[in-house]
Structure formats: C-alpha cells, structure tokens
User: Fold UPF0342 protein HNQ34_002453 from Anoxybacteroides tepidamans.
Amino acid sequence: MSNPLYAIAQQLEQAIRTSDDFQQLKQAYEAVRRDETAYRVFTHFRDLQMRLHEKQLTGAAILPEEVEQAQKAMALAQQNEKLSALMMLEQRMSMVIADINQIAMKPLEELYRSFTE
Assistant:
C-alpha cells in the first residue's frame, strides 16, 4: 500500500528540479565551477561557513576573529560577479523552499492551534 503523500513529494521534487529558479541556480553553480578564482573563493567561504555552523551546533564558542574572517570572506565573495549572482539565486531558491515548507506545515499548525484554543 503506497502513501500518496510520498508520491506528491516526488512530484514536488521533479517540479523543483525543472523549475526556472533551480535551473538558473544550477547554471550559476556551473559558472562558478568553471571560473578558477570564483571557485576558490566559493570553497573557502563554504568551508568557513561549515566550520562555524558545526561550532554552533556543538555549542562551541565562535571567536571574534572567526566572525571577522567570515565577514571578510563574504565581502570577497560578494565582490565576485558570479558568486554574487549565485548567492542571490541560492537565497531565492531558499525562499521558495521555505514557502513550500510553510504550505506543507499548515495542516499541522492549524491542528496544534485548535488544540490549544
């Protein structure tokens, strides 16, 4: 017996993959990958983000110099046209996913709200 929610989720996955937003994001990643300088800045920035995120998750202190290093890496990334476009497209795709998540969670939120009223 199959669950229709999983079938719909798979349809949503395909819709995301074929969406203009995702295709533009994919092209932006490919453009960064082909540009040696942009790719080097991107990987450095991503590695910094990952280390800081890991520290956050484990409750480890993030040092002021680490914050400053991340801010400098972000500024450098934003100065690169390809990376700037990539970050804008990532943000747009992230907003789409957040909107989809909000829609999907609406029945549960309504249920919880009705339970506490």
